[in-house]
Design goal:
With 431 residues, the protein is an alpha+beta fold. The chain has three domains: 147 residues, Triger factor/SurA peptide-binding fold; 153 residues, Chitinase A, domain 3, CATH 3.10.50.40; 106 residues, Chitinase A, domain 3. The protein is built from 16 helices and twelve strands. The strands form three sheets. Strands 3, 4, 5, 6 and 7 form a five-stranded antiparallel β-sheet that branches. Strands 9-8-11-10 form a four-stranded antiparallel β-sheet. It has a three-stranded antiparallel β-sheet with strand order 2-1-12, with helices on both faces. α5 packs across α6. The longest helix is centred in the C-terminal third of the chain and has 31 residues. It is elongated, with a radius of gyration of 29 Å.
């Protein structure tokens, strides 16, 4: 951020007062970075490094030294702090319930109860308070990025169709997906021959370590300059047309668990590993043709009254009266009542869970007992079922998601670079 000399002096004076106060409170807990009007303390860095180790598989922890990740973790904390300052200025809030729900989801993904998950954290020296703060900060960062970047990311139908057309026209087997890892040894813009040679030497050293059995994710965390280095360099599942064109000639020739030699580009030297491949599976769903009669609950109609009315209608239909006529006269779902209660063909997930669960238990033409949902009580009848190939719809959804992620990632990277460049940041990692 450009400042006048006076404003810069005032800001530095203010930061100096913060620093003096921090040192007077606890000299051991020194400041390791000044970030605009905030600071990052040694204790905060230690906690983040501890959590970083906690996320690693046990067999990898001993392979990654503190020196390997300390600066990387601090760099990430600086970027996070800049975004949290925006959140504070914007008065963004995360509720305790949102934090607890997130912890519960993390525990579930690790196949643990919340209590056992917290016991694992405690065993690894991570306090509940610090873990909750980490979760809260992550949620605030996502909210900031959503407010400042994501809302500007739009993908049109034409872009999705063009992307799918490109996939279909590309050479190679476009039904196959590749699970890739990526390590980047960066070279500066307008790098000298000596800088390029040093980067190449470092990349070759990493491929030698991979050949000796070193884990790819361990080397990524310790040495990669890519944005996803601390996540082990995992690029996820990609099709050939979704990859940078630089990588596709190498990926096509690789076998599972094989890694490449250093691949040079203007940004540096890349090492990729093919973890696995998979084919495009056909996605089949069962569509259901269903109709219903709805009775809503109000001050005059109780649950019991609604059920009795529907049981009476069910008996009349079973005795030969016309469902369509009774639905038009009795159903309070005005959208479908005019069509005799017909909801047409519906796909899985299109209706509320209680309705869908009852519908799925019915045979063709069978009438359900009264079924309660948040809308009231229903009498349900299934008229037919058929299998539908949803592969193309799934491809479109995946293509849209891929394009949105690609655009969002690029927009966020650009925004974060600008945010970092305009900020006052002073590192004090080495006293």
């Amino acid at each position: 951020m450009k400042r006048t000399n006076l404003s810069l002096f005032i800001s530095i004076l203010f930061l100096s007062l913060i620093c003096t106060h921090a040192f007077s409170q606890q000299s051991v807990n020194r400041i390791v970075a000044i970030v605009d009007k905030g600071v990052i303390l040694q204790s905060q860095l230690e906690e983040q490094i501890k959590q970083m180790y906690q996320r690693l598989p046990a067999e990898q922890r001993a392979s990654i030294s503190r020196k390997d990740i300390e600066q990387r973790v601090l760099d990430r904390m600086v970027i996070t702090e800049l975004q949290l300052q925006i959140a504070r200025r914007s008065s963004m809030r995360i509720s305790d319930k949102e934090i607890q729900d997130s912890i519960n989801r993390i525990a579930k993904s690790n196949k643990l109860t919340p209590e056992k998950f917290l016991a694992v954290l405690e065993k690894d020296g991570v306090t509940l308070k610090s873990f909750k703060k980490s979760i809260k900060d992550q949620m605030l960062v996502r909210r900031v990025q959503s407010s400042y970047v994501h809302h500007e990311v739009k993908v049109s139908e034409q872009e999705v169709d063009s992307f799918l057309k490109l996939l279909d026209q590309s050479q190679g087997d476009q039904s196959t997906e590749y699970h890739l890892g990526h390590i980047l040894i960066e070279t500066p813009e307008n790098a000298t021959p000596n800088q390029i040679a040093n980067a190449k030497k470092k990349a070759e050293k990493l491929t030698a370590q991979l050949a000796a059995g070193k884990k790819f994710s361990t080397l990524s965390i310790a040495y990669s300059d890519a944005g996803n280095a601390l996540e082990g360099g995992d690029l996820g599942w990609l099709k050939l047309a979704q990859m940078p064109s630089l990588l596709t000639p190498y990926v096509e020739k690789m076998q599972a668990n094989e890694f490449s030699k250093p691949i040079q580009s203007p940004s540096g030297f890349h090492i990729i590993k093919l973890f696995d491949t998979r084919g495009q599976e056909k996605v089949m769903v069962t569509k259901t043709h269903v109709r219903h009669i709805l009775i809503k609950i109000n001050a005059l109609v109780t649950d019991r009254t609604a059920q009795e009315r529907l049981l009476n209608l069910k008996e009349r239909i079973e005795n030969g009266e016309d469902f369509i006529t009774l639905a038009r006269a009795n159903s309070e779902d005005r959208g479908s009542a005019i069509n005799g209660g017909d909801l047409d063909w519906v796909q899985p997930g299109a209706l509320v869970k209680a309705f869908e669960a009852a519908m799925n238990k019915l045979d063709i033409n069978q009438l359900s007992p009264p079924v309660q949902t948040q809308f009231g009580w229903h009498l349900i009848q299934v008229l037919g079922r058929e299998q539908q190939d949803n592969t193309q719809l799934m491809r479109k959804a995946q293509a849209r998601s891929q394009l949105q992620k690609r655009k969002a990632d690029a927009a966020i990277d650009s925004w974060l670079t600008k945010l970092r460049d305009e900020a006052y940041v002073e590192y004090r990692l080495n006293p």
